[in-house]
Design goal:
Layout: H1 2-14, H2 19-48, H3 53-111, H4 119-140, H5 146-184, H6 192-206, H7 210-220
Helix pairs in contact: 1-2, 1-3, 2-3, 3-4, 3-5, 4-5, 5-6, 5-7, 6-7
Length: 221
């Protein structure tokens, strides 16, 4: 039991336990001290031969039952706090995965040299980057609030996935718009309306309005 209490005390410094958890540990600690005192009294009585042997056996049986119940409670608490430790490890692993999502989105932007990156990309990039910083702040806190940490991880993951989706969709639309304009250019000499429509589509493309550019070029052709 002393060993289990020692483990719980060390974990208590790392994780933000509820008041009920802390109070339960204090109660268990108090009960352990009472059992120790009772045991020491029994041993003194044994040395002084003030108790009959049969009574000592009964008293010891009662103490053993109490110890067993305390051990069950402590093991439960240790398992509960141990799951917090697993959540922390999982959060650190997910943090690496989330950073990779962000890195992947940035690399795709660099790889496909589109003329203009829309403002919404930078807004989403900042949101995802800030969310990652919030995870790191929670992990650096002592004690760690696991519930808050899990919320931070979920938020950062959702924002990073959103950024990657936005990046992929933007690049896909930009490439389709560019290819449609190039395809339509062959018809410009034979139709003034196509020429006019594709010129508008090109202007939209170089302003970063890729979706509208694609719609305009398709409608013109």
């Amino acid at each position: 039991i002393n060993n289990l209490i020692g483990q719980l005390d060390s974990l208590k410094e790392t994780y933000d336990l509820s008041k009920d958890d802390v109070n339960r540990l204090h109660i268990i600690n108090t009960e352990v001290k009472k059992i120790k005192d009772s045991y020491n009294n029994l041993m003194d009585c044994s040395k002084n031969h003030t108790f009959p042997y049969s009574r000592m056996v009964k008293e010891l049986d009662v103490l053993i039952i109490k110890v067993s119940k305390l051990e069950e409670s402590l093991n439960y608490d240790l398992k509960t706090i141990g799951s917090m430790k697993e959540d922390e490890v999982r959060a650190r692993e997910q943090l690496d995965n989330i950073k990779n999502l962000l890195k992947k989105a940035k690399n795709r932007i660099r790889l496909y040299n589109i003329p203009v990156i829309p403002d919404n990309y930078f807004v989403e990039l900042k949101d995802a980057s800030d969310a990652i910083k919030e995870i790191q702040k929670e992990l650096n806190k002592k004690p760690i609030n696991i519930e808050t940490l899990n919320i931070r991880v979920d938020t950062a993951r959702d924002l990073s996935l959103k950024l990657l989706s936005t990046t992929n969709e933007m690049i896909k639309t930009a490439r389709m718009s560019e290819m449609t304009i190039i395809y339509g250019n062959r018809y410009k000499p034979i139709d003034k309306d196509i020429e006019k429509g594709l010129d508008v589509a090109s202007q939209l493309f170089f302003k970063g309005n890729y979706k509208k550019s694609l719609e305009t070029s398709i409608a013109s052709i």
